[in-house]
Amino acid sequence: MNNYQLPWETKVYRNRHGRGVRTPMFGTRLPRYRTRSGFFDDLVIGQIRRLRGAWPELIGPLQFAVEDVPPSMPAPWEPERRIASQAFAASHGAPARIVLYRMPLQGHAHNRIDLQFAIRDELVLRVAELYARRPEEIDPDWGMM
């Protein structure tokens, strides 16, 4: 005899108020489930894939990260304050890294299209900075909407 029951046939434990198990009101695949930070991460991943398709030898060895806000105190070796992103050159066996700061970029964007272009421009600018090239060499559409 098989003791396995289908999930919709099993008894659900109900608490003393009769509310039962709490579940989300909408599915995880619906657009409402996506958070602003998750949407931002998706845009960043899309831009990295696009750049990797055009420049696999440049983008392949880089690491990318997203943080909510930049650190409050700049490091002593940082000559200027960068609000939207930072590029860190490779050193002591660690690969080169590009860090995007989500909240400053989202704060300056008026809509999703602006945000997508801002992410593209920041990534292209930092890649060009790391490889000592002009941003227009990496992406001819850099700086244009």
From TrEMBL:
<dbReference type="InterPro" id="IPR038555">
    <property type="entry name" value="Zincin_1_sf"/>
</dbReference>
<protein>
    <recommendedName>
        <fullName>Peptidase</fullName>
    </recommendedName>
</protein>
